[in-house]
Structures are given as structure tokens and as C-alpha cells.
Design goal:
- This protein is mainly alpha-helical.
- The chain is built from eight helices and two strands.
- A hairpin with an 8-residue loop joins β1 and β2.
Length: 256
């Protein structure tokens, strides 16, 4: 029941973000507002508003721009808020603003719009966090992200003039930085019993590694003059030979 509740919350958050993206796009297209001018314009004062606005702006002349961003934005946001619910809000906002601020400072002199930078940040965070935590469930999420969006890695390189590869690269590195910072927060791998005992200063009790120096109760008794022939222990087929020296010199007489 609890997991279902968390899933619904994560779903609503991801759906709300997607709804805002499409509403802005439809308004921009329907009223021809040319909202791209509210995107990130690096090192210009008027471009600062783009740090907040740019992820929700998409090209009105290229439907593929918003369509290609919608599915990964929704899936990755849902995964983040479902599996990292205690730190998801912080991580999402930091990726959002770190990507925007670094683009305003470092990107080329052009308008930069779209959710791609945030998507790359979410991808790198989910992938790296899964491996850091050594958690099978989180690792499975990371493998899922790699499998579905693994080809996105090429987007951090300048492969096309009209694609903001700077936003992709800066978002990608923002996610890596946050994965390192938050690696000890959020879901952690379950500790094994011996790890818990070591932290508490308790010596692990493991019968496999115990060495008992005491003589076993059922060990074979020593052969002495009083007890020349020990009783057979477990295997009746064992034949024991006892040699006794005769009082007079001569050959040894063996008794079976």
C-alpha cells in the first residue's frame, strides 16, 4: 500500500511537469508568441530568466523537439521521485538550476531552450547513484536507464549546429556531481550481519571459522602398556597391528 502511494505521488509530479511543458508549447504555437526569446541567452542580463523558463520552452517549428523530450522527461522524473523520494526534490531542483546557471555562464552566444539539459542530468544521476549504492533495485533502475537512453551520451558532443550540446553536457555533469554529493543519502544497500556486528564491536560468531583446540571426546585413546589394544572406533573393518618386544632378543613377534 505504501509503495503504491509513493508511486502515485511520483506519477503526479512527473505528469504535472509534462503538462506544463505541453501547455507552454501549445500557447506558444497557438498565439505565435515566439517564447524562445525567454530562453537562456548566455552572459546577458535578459537571458537570466531563461534559467527558470528555458526547460519549459520548445521549438514551435519542430514538433519533434518537445515530443522527443516528453517521454524521457516523464520516465526519469517518475523514477527519481519514486526511488529517491527523500532527496528527489533537492536533486531535481539542483539539476534544474545547476544546468541553467552553468549554461548561462559557459554556453555559446545563442538562445538555448528545452528540457534536454535536465534530462541528461537526471540520467547521469540515476545511473551513477545506482552503482554507488550497490542496491539491486536501484541498480536495476540504472540499467534500465542505460538500456533505454544509453544512446543519449552522444548528445554531449557538438554533432549539430542547432542542438545545444552544451546544455546536454552541462546537465550530464551536474547529475554526476550530485550523485557523488548524495551518495550517502537516500536509499542505501542493506548491510550484512557481519557488517553490523563489526560496527557494533561484536565479534562475529561463525561456526565455520571456529578452531576447537580441545581434544574431541570420541578421539582414539593413546596406546600404552596398560591399554595396548584400543577398541575399534567406528569402522569394524579397520585392522590394527600392535608390536611388542619380547624379553629375549630375537625377531619381533607380531600379534593381530
Amino acid at each position: 500500500m505504501f509503495q503504491s502511494h509513493i508511486s502515485r505521488i511520483a506519477f503526479r509530479i512527473a505528469l504535472t511537469m509534462l503538462f506544463v511543458m505541453w501547455m507552454v508549447y501549445l500557447i506558444d504555437v497557438g498565439f505565435e508568441l515566439h517564447l524562445y526569446k525567454y530562453g537562456i541567452l548566455p552572459r546577458k542580463t535578459e537571458g537570466l530568466v531563461g534559467i527558470i523558463a528555458a526547460p519549459f520552452l520548445h521549438s514551435p517549428v519542430d514538433f519533434g523537439h518537445i515530443f522527443n523530450n516528453s517521454i524521457p522527461a516523464f520516465v526519469l522524473t517518475w523514477l527519481l521521485f519514486y526511488h529517491y523520494r527523500t532527496i528527489a526534490t533537492q536533486v531535481f531542483l539542483l539539476i534544474f538550476f545547476l544546468t541553467g546557471i552553468s549554461m548561462w555562464m559557459l554556453a555559446r552566444d545563442s538562445y538555448h531552450i528545452g528540457m534536454s539539459g535536465v534530462i541528461y542530468g537526471l540520467t547521469s544521476f540515476l545511473v551513477l547513484s545506482g552503482f554507488f549504492r550497490k542496491n539491486m533495485r536501484v541498480a536495476a533502475v540504472s540499467l534500465f536507464v542505460i538500456f533505454i537512453y544509453g544512446s543519449m551520451i552522444w548528445g554531449i558532443f557538438p554533432t549539430a549546429v542547432n542542438i545545444s550540446w552544451e546544455g546536454h553536457a552541462l546537465g550530464f555533469f551536474s547529475g554526476i556531481i550530485l550523485a557523488v554529493i548524495y551518495k550517502n543519502k537516500g536509499p542505501q544497500p542493506q548491510k550484512l550481519l557481519y557488517e553490523i556486528q563489526e560496527e557494533q564491536g561484536i565479534e562475529p560468531e561463525d561456526e565455520y571459522w571456529k578452531i576447537d583446540d580441545e581434544k574431541p571426546e570420541n578421539s582414539t585413546p593413546e596406546i600404552t602398556e596398560e591399554n595396548p589394544i584400543p577398541p575399534l572406533q567406528h569402522d569394524p573393518l579397520i585392522i590394527q597391528y600392535i608390536y611388542k618386544k619380547k624379553e629375549t632378543e630375537g625377531d619381533l613377534d607380531s600379534e593381530k
